[in-house]
Design a protein that fits this description.
It is a single chain. The protein has 398 residues and is α+β, with helices and mostly antiparallel strands. It has ten helices and eight strands. The strands form two sheets. A four-stranded mixed beta sheet has the order 1-4-5-8, covered by helices on one side. Strands 2-3-7-6 form a four-stranded antiparallel beta sheet, with no helix packed on it. α1 runs parallel beside α3 and α6 packs antiparallel against α9. The longest helix has 33 residues, at 281-313.
């Protein structure tokens, strides 16, 4: 049986305030986090202490079971302070939501042992191979981009099962103990350097059946975990909304760039003629362009979460048209955020190139983040176009 812990009396407002309270410390540690190439241990302690990683964990195991829209609110606050930290926090927190959709025995295997366990991931399915064996699966593979693996207790690894003839392989998420995973030091990068997104590998590892989950069972309806987690939070589709989860810290990176730029320009004078830059109309226009893009991105992300939550509360399964439009909007919001940063970076002049200027870190981080396939405009826009023209979704997992 799962742990019987009463729901904490913390609200979404409380959690946004907790993110704001630790943001100055995250900002102070940002440069050191890059040098470490993984999240600062003091930051992990802060995330544990504030319970920010538990915002969508089931209340039955002591989680807050709040709402997915918090990823936008907290991601903006945290990403403005440190893009790498926001990226890893997002990964950790959303995996509680995903584990809640696993069979109850798979949830209990983790949360009966430690309700505060940190779960990382490497969910590139073709990188792993899962073969059926008695009682579970035999897993082999090597995966890139395992963000936050250093501090993880478990990790969700993606794999495909073998398929006969022309059959399509089945994707699986397999939850594996960190102690059984080999970490391969590969994360030497320009952007999101502090995420510690190293390669990981396992060799002939047995994974019990209850620790495996087919993502096609989480497309906006009941899941294997619904027997113990029946709330609407856990009836929302993983892949339909995952681009929004990724876009949330990207929104924060854009917000951080905006705040840093505006703050630096208020009293700055031009090197060439000592004129006050804050009086330039061209600067006013760049600030307005950037701010409008950031605000539009936030609204797009929030609107999709609100719509998904409304459908789940009404026990309605989202249509393919809805899911494709949500993914399109998350990719477009990401695009707006990148444009917002690029406008400011171009206007900042040579000073933006100094490593002491946080604007250059936001610029590097946000461009690195857009490499994630989940927020690719080309992929998600084309998928929306397919559905709009009456064709089926190209990705059967959505």
């Amino acid at each position: 049986m799962a742990l019987d812990i009463p729901k904490a009396k913390l609200t979404r407002h409380d959690m946004i305030n907790r993110a704001r309270e630790i943001a100055p410390a995250l900002r102070e540690r940002a440069a050191e986090t890059e040098r470490l190439r993984h999240i600062h241990p003091d930051t992990i302690a802060d995330l544990r202490r504030t319970r920010l990683m538990r915002i969508v964990q089931p209340s039955r195991v002591g989680g807050l079971e709040l709402d997915l829209g918090l990823f936008v609110d907290i991601g903006e606050v945290m990403g403005a302070a440190c893009g790498s930290t926001a990226w890893v926090w997002t990964n950790y927190a959303i995996h509680d939501w995903m584990l809640a959709m696993f069979p109850s025995a798979g949830q209990d295997a983790v949360w009966d042992e430690d309700a505060d366990a940190i779960i990382g991931s490497a969910l590139i399915y073709p990188a792993g191979r899962a073969e059926p064996v008695d009682g579970g699966w035999r897993l082999n593979g090597r995966w890139p981009f395992s963000s936050g693996i250093h501090a993880s207790d478990w990790a969700l690894l993606g794999a495909l099962t073998p398929a006969a003839d022309d059959a399509v392989p089945t994707p699986l998420m397999l939850n594996v103990r960190r102690a059984d995973i080999e970490l391969i030091d590969t994360w030497h990068v320009a952007g999101l350097a502090g995420t510690g997104s190293h390669d990981v590998a396992v060799n002939d590892l047995f994974v019990p059946a209850e620790l495996a989950f087919n993502p096609r069972d989480a497309r906006g309806d009941v899941t294997p975990g619904s027997t113990v987690n029946s709330g609407p939070l856990f009836r929302q589709g993983i892949l339909a909304l995952f681009p929004h989860i990724i876009a949330a810290p990207i929104l924060g990176m854009a917000r951080g760039a905006f705040d840093d730029y505006v703050g630096s320009m208020q009293d700055k004078t031009a090197t060439y003629n000592q004129s006050k830059i804050a009086e330039y109309t061209a600067i006013h226009l760049r600030i307005a362009e950037s701010g409008a893009r950031i605000d539009a991105a936030r609204r797009a992300l929030n609107d999709c979460f609100i719509e998904s939550q409304r459908l789940a509360a009404a026990d309605e399964v989202p249509s393919d048209a809805a899911k494709s439009s949500w993914r399109r909007d998350a990719a477009y919001a990401t695009r707006l955020c990148v444009e917002a940063v690029d406008v400011l970076y171009a206007a900042a002049g040579g000073s933006a190139n100094y490593l002491s200027n946080p604007l250059q870190r936001h610029h590097r981080d946000i461009h690195a983040a857009t490499g994630h396939i989940g927020v690719s405009w080309d992929i998600n826009a084309a998928e929306f176009g397919r559905v709009a023209l009456g064709l089926p979704l190209g990705n059967p997992n959505v």
